[in-house]
Design a protein that fits this description.
Elements (H helix, E strand, L loop, with lengths): L3 E5 L4 H12 L4 E8 L6 H11 L3 E6 L1 H14 L11 H20 L3 E3 L8 H12 L4 E3 L1 H5 L3 H10 L13 E5 L2 E5 L28 E7 L2 E5 L2 E2 L2 H14 L4 E7 L5 E7 L1 H17 L2 H19 L6 H13 L5 E8 L2 E8 L7 H4 L11 H9 L1 H10 L5
Parallel strand pairs: 1-2, 1-4, 2-3, 4-5
Antiparallel strand pairs: 6-7, 7-12, 8-9, 8-13, 9-10, 11-12, 13-14
Helix pairs in contact: 1-7, 4-5, 8-9, 10-11
Length: 398
């Protein structure tokens, strides 16, 4: 009886060929696992494709609410953007998929799990480090990394073994998508000077101005809970905001990022809801967080995003930063008004029952109660070090 391996199966080129390769070249019985994280695909068709390719079983797990509540919510509270731009589209789903891989592997008595990542990608790190934390006894296989085939060879291997392919030499894009966004790479976009072809867009390809030009987003302790006063589960809220912001072509990100493996990679993302929610959340923090907490949270949010990008969701440092973020998020309750225009959005209103914004301290009108006379001594003490330096060492200036 053949050993069983559970493969994280998307139904794309690499995982479809990997399924066949694990059977033909390694002699495994393969269980295909597809995790629904809101990727807007017909996952029943994906399941059927896996069975047709030779899987002994194919499972589809609905994890949309878990992805939103346990992963996206934390990313929003952390204001998480890798290199201050990328909203962790693919990064967030990998630890969740790893958890489900382990669960299914235990049910089938599998000795191994597998992924379809390449040797130069970030996802191999994310899967394997997460799996090492969750189930160090399981063997992790990486057929795409092991077989040594380039993309053209992979396509030919699939065709030779009767694998139904969703990618071809004429359509070379590699696409990963979920509720939080969509990532596209490969093809002509591997030249960072080449503009993205118009056919790469999906979440932001709708007609301009087809949906409302403003929304009011309600937050409770840093987590979005409502749109225009209607309470919604987070998954439904993100989905609706994806459609609204996407219709204005908001959320396109074209960047060259620094991968964990040491190379620069040109990536194109669509993340309409993500960019809007992250900005709205940051602006609500502007009126609810004390200055030192706000500054520390910016630094720790960047660190948190890097940890998650690098595959360290289950690391002790990430968990420690989570504790800080949870504490800092307690007063982040209120509403933010966002307006849209073609290819643009901005926040033009924010309010909170725990706001630290004091009109009588901020205003220059007659209601002003700021004690201006106190400022002279404050400024003198604050600048004392610089004054002393200028008097004693001022001649050292270039």
């Amino acid at each position: 009886m053949a050993e069983v391996v559970v493969l994280a199966y998307s139904g794309g080129l690499d995982t479809s060929v990997a399924l066949k390769w694990l059977q033909v070249e390694r002699g495994f019985d393969v269980v295909a696992l597809s995790v629904d994280v809101g990727q807007q695909e017909d996952l029943e068709a994906v399941r059927t494709r896996a069975l047709a390719t030779g899987a002994i079983a194919a499972e589809v797990v609905d994890a949309r609410d878990a992805f939103a509540d346990d992963y996206i919510a934390r990313a929003i509270k952390a204001d998480a953007r890798y290199e201050n731009r990328y909203p962790l589209v693919s990064s967030l789903s990998r630890p969740l998929i790893s958890e489900r891989l382990v669960e299914v592997a235990r049910r089938y008595g599998a000795s191994a799990v597998a992924h379809g990542c390449t040797g130069k990608g970030n996802d191999q790190v994310r899967f394997e480090v997460a799996l090492a934390a969750l189930a160090p006894d399981l063997t992790v296989l990486a057929p795409v990394r092991d077989w040594g085939m380039n993309r053209e060879d992979t396509i030919e291997y699939g065709r030779a073994h009767g694998v139904t392919l969703t990618q071809s030499k004429e359509n070379p894009y590699s696409i990963d998508q979920n509720l939080w966004g969509r990532a596209v790479e490969c093809g002509e976009m591997e030249d960072p000077w080449a503009a993205p072809p118009s056919d790469v867009w999906a979440y932001t390809a709708g007609g301009l101005a087809s949906l409302p030009d403003q929304v009011v987003i309600g937050f409770e302790q840093g987590v979005p809970v409502s749109l225009d006063g209607e309470r919604l589960p987070l998954a439904a809220l993100v989905d609706r905001l994806n459609r609204i912001a996407g219709s204005w072509q908001v959320g396109r990100i074209d960047m060259v990022e620094n991968r964990r493996v040491g190379i620069k990679s040109r990536e194109v993302y669509e993340a309409p809801a993500a960019v809007v929610l992250l900005e709205a959340h940051r602006q609500l923090e502007d009126i609810t967080l004390e200055r030192e907490v706000a500054h520390a949270k910016i630094e720790l949010g960047l660190r948190w995003a890097t940890l998650v990008y690098d595959g360290l969701w289950f690391s002790p440092l990430k968990h420690a930063i989570d504790a800080f973020i949870d504490e800092a998020s307690k007063p982040v309750t209120g509403e933010v008004r966002v307006r849209f225009a073609p290819n643009a959005f901005w926040v033009d209103g924010r309010r909170s029952p725990s706001s630290l914004y004091d009109y009588e301290l901020a205003t220059y009108a007659s209601e002003d109660r700021f004690r201006h006379g106190d400022a002279e001594g404050f400024v003198r003490i604050f600048g004392l070090g610089i004054r002393t330096w200028a008097e004693r060492q001022g001649g050292l200036r270039p």
